[in-house]
Amino acid sequence: MFRFGKPPFEELSIEDYQTQYANGNHVDHLLLDVREINEFTEGRIPGAVNLPMSQITQRLEEIPRDKPVVLVCRTGARSAQVATYLKQFGFEKIYNLREGTMGWIRRNLPLER
Known about the structure:
By secondary structure, this protein is an alpha/beta fold. It is built from four helices and five strands. It has a five-stranded parallel sheet.
């Protein structure tokens, strides 16, 4: 049986994200939504900043290296790809939000529009 190795980044559940970063916890971090702009404007997790996956390579300097970066997309797949990419460029504090925005919506959590 073939198994994938452990990803080079840490995954956060939505509940862990809320406990550690959201809900007034105010831990300094960047919630980076890597969906395309049309997806982002339809609804996003409060506080998210948009940097589409298609632009990551050209805009690496906009991503902080001195604080945690939590990546999110629709389901967690694209953000996991971006997390792997960023780790290859030496970013240390990279986290992927498991289940993405759809998991957030399934829990009836608020969205910004």
